[in-house]
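Re: [ENG-882] Designed sequences occasionally contain unexpected residues at chain ends

Forwarding the minimal case from QA. Structure tokens:
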């Protein structure tokens, strides 16, 4: 291999590793390991296809996704469908872009020029490939975290079939291009693959926007549904407090008369039967509704309001504490709704099954983080906290353990959000820590 060959090989591996970094958002160390893997395996593949005289048919390109698939399954421990999807995405993104630019530029300059300055021409194509791929990844938001949401999986499975079809067409274009009188047709197929890939990306983005608008609309309906309940409760509590203001004067008069008579027995009776009962009434869990006003995020406020209603319906004593103004938390709205729905619903269900029937929710604003604490009474069970997040595990029976596993997957996408779980006899406690960036 001459000097140009080495430079081209290094540039090729560099582009593939950058695609890996842009799409999977990995560390520099992971990118370096991936680069070494691609270089060694691609070199082995090229030599292998050369020995069997198959290199001219583009077999190394066709098998390239298989090498990536082995890496994602073996080293990254991805699910098979996810590994296939990313492997084909990487391969199509590079090879279709590279082929399209080669065909287009050689048509402009002429095949003779491209053959005469082959090394320089290919190096320039690689440089353009790098720039175009960077623009495509940025424009279509191809970071895999952007698409790694379970409500998109059914559609992404259809996209996977499109990727497989385009990969096969790309392989056929390489074979056709080796036949002299079919060279132009091979170029057309290469262009079709590139345009088809861009249209697929457009479709992916359009579907994501559409489905998230539908989910957001459902969330708005959910908020409106519970807004009336929330408003009715607030009005009832306000009227009750207004009535208490009038009663308060009578309490003071009763106490003053008892004090003036210096009748200690009467003072004790008024204190026990009037003041203590009034204090207990004001400390009732129903007044926790007022703390909801401190939560700025309407979706989170609605979820907690719904959990209060559910707890009240099931005779669960509910305590809410939100003393500070809580600004929107550092998590995508849809993910926050899904996580909090699971945790609050599980807390209500756990409290209903317990003897104490108690549920406490607190949102605490600290200097560097915001804590969401959900604590409920529960049946005494010997369960390890890590087992609760395993797929399929549930204390409520078979096929019920999907919620907490989904919570684990969602929170795994956020470096600034930490979930802590504690089980102590008949108390189940979950604390979500939302780290805040220093301004």
């Amino acid at each position: 291999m001459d000097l140009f060959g080495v430079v081209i090989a290094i540039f090729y591996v560099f582009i593939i590793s950058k695609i890996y970094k842009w799409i999977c958002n990995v560390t520099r160390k992971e990118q370096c390991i991936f680069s070494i893997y691609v270089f060694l395996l691609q070199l082995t593949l090229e030599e292998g296809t050369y020995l069997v005289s198959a290199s001219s048919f583009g077999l190394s390109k066709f098998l390239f996704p298989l090498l990536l698939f082995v890496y994602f399954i073996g080293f990254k421990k991805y699910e098979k469908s996810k590994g296939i999807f990313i492997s084909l995405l990487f391969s199509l993104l590079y090879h279709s872009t590279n082929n399209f630019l080669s065909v287009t530029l050689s048509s402009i300059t002429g095949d003779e020029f491209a053959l005469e300055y082959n090394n320089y021409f290919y190096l320039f194509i690689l440089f353009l490939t790098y720039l175009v791929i960077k623009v495509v990844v940025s424009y279509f938001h191809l970071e895999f975290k952007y698409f790694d949401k379970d409500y998109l999986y059914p559609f992404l499975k259809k996209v996977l079939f499109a990727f497989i079809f385009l990969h096969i067409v790309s392989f056929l274009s390489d074979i056709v291009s080796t036949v002299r009188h079919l060279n132009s047709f091979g170029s057309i197929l290469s262009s079709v693959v590139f345009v088809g890939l861009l249209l697929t990306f457009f479709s992916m983005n359009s579907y994501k926007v559409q489905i998230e608008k539908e989910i957001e609309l459902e969330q708005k309906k959910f908020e409106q549904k519970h807004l009336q309940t929330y408003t009715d409760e607030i009005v009832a509590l306000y009227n009750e407090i207004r009535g208490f203001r009038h009663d308060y004067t009578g309490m003071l008069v009763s106490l003053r008369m008892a004090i003036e008579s210096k009748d200690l027995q009467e003072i004790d009776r008024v204190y026990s039967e009037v003041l203590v009962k009034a204090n207990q009434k004001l400390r009732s869990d129903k007044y926790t509704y007022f703390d909801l006003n401190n939560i700025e995020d309407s979706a989170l406020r609605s979820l907690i309001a719904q959990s209060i209603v559910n707890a009240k319906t099931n005779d669960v004593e509910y305590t809410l504490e939100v003393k500070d103004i809580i600004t929107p938390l550092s998590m995508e709205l849809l993910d926050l709704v899904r996580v909090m729905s699971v945790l609050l619903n599980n807390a209500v269900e756990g409290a209903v099954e317990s003897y104490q029937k108690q549920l406490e929710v607190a949102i605490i604003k600290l200097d560097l983080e915001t804590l969401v604490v959900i604590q409920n009474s529960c049946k005494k069970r010997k369960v390890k906290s890590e087992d609760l997040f395993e797929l399929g595990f549930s204390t409520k029976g078979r096929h019920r353990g999907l919620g907490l596993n989904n919570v684990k997957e969602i929170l795994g996408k956020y470096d600034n959000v930490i979930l802590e779980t504690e089980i102590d006899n008949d108390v189940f406690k979950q604390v979500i820590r939302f780290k805040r960036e220093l301004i």
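QA comment: On inspection the terminal residues look reasonable. The radius of gyration is 32 Å. Proposing we downgrade this to a documentation issue.
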